Amino acid sequence: MKCIICKEHIASACLKVCKKCIVEGKADEYILAMHKKVPQDGIPCNICGNSCKIGENEKGFCRLRENKKGKLISYSNANVAIGEYYFDALPTNCVASWVCGMDKGYNLAVFYGACSFDCLFCQNAIYHEMAKRKLPLMYADELIQASKKAKCICFFGGDPTCQIQHAINVAKNVDCIVCWETNGNFSKQFLPKVAEVTNGIVKFDLKAWNEKLHIALCGVSNKNTLQNFEYLAKYCKMAASTLLVPYYVDADEVYQIASFIASIDENIPYSLLAFYPCHKMNDLPNTSKKQALECYASAKKAGLKNVRIGNVHLLI
């Protein structure tokens, strides 16, 4: 559809507004209508980077904390979390598999059933139902035992950021390689521990560069994610990816993201992932080969040495 504001550029039917109008600050009312709100008045929660302040009878952004009669109740802690796990034969479908070098044995894939973002294009939107039902339950001791059959463990989701206490507890008690796939929206208090327990790859999904666009697509700011990426890059082996959402995440956006990564380390691997219609952006087309090649060229122009186009079978 055409943008409801400028009536010129293409927009997703769920947002109704194009990238240009979003970036120019003309689309705030449409953006607010599309996303959950981060609570701002009540008991503070410091588990993830959203730093919710949860009012009485209100739930946090992740839906795993709520204020009941002035007391903050959490449905996840160091010993139990909402989510599920499974074994994945190596090499897995992880977007960092092309640089991890693991090709035999099994990965223990840990899917957390909540998220600190609200991405309109989420490709793992089943986490919404998990967070709503507070099921299934996933116990730390069970995961630690299961990890004995795996060469590596990867925390993803949803996202591990809003159940970070559980992930860290598991990570510090396993003997296998520990990796993360995350939006990077960690609470800063947990960053030293994440660095301490990680001996594999920390892969950040950098959704967008422009903050207004990031809020439009994901519901929250990207400032904390970018700061956390820079911090962890001092201590961990990093990788990054960006989903090439048609009409929104273009070559200019990728150039800015890649320039940021290159300013930290030009050798950090960067995957550009093909989009396919799903969740609330199911009216958009797949990423085109033209868009993917333009974005690849931008990432290389920005100075990155290790760039890859992923999900090439989805390109049109």
CATH fold-type name of the largest domain: TIM Barrel
Main β-sheet, spatial strand arrangement: 7-5-6-8-9-10-11-12-13
Instruction: Decide which structural class fits the backbone.
Output: alpha/beta
Instruction: Look at the structure and give the CATH class of the largest domain.
Output: Alpha Beta
Percent of residues in β-strands = 15-25%
What global shape is seen? globular
Mean pLDDT equals 96
What is the H/E string? HHEEEEEHEHEHEHEHEHHEHEHE
Helix percent reads 25-40%
Number of strands: 13
Number of domains: 2
CATH superfamily of the largest domain: Aldolase class I
The whole-angstrom Rg is 19 Å
* Distance between the amino and carboxyl termini: 19 Å
Describe it.
The structure is a single chain. The chain folds into 2 domains: 1-34, no CATH class; 76-314, TIM Barrel, CATH 3.20.20.70. Helix content is 28%, strand content 21%. The chain has 11 helices and 13 strands. The strands form 3 sheets. Strands 7-5-6-8-9-10-11-12-13 form a 9-stranded mixed sheet, with helices on both faces. The protein has a two-stranded antiparallel sheet with strand order 1-2. Strand 1 (43-44) and strand 2 (53-54) form a beta hairpin. The mean pLDDT is 96.
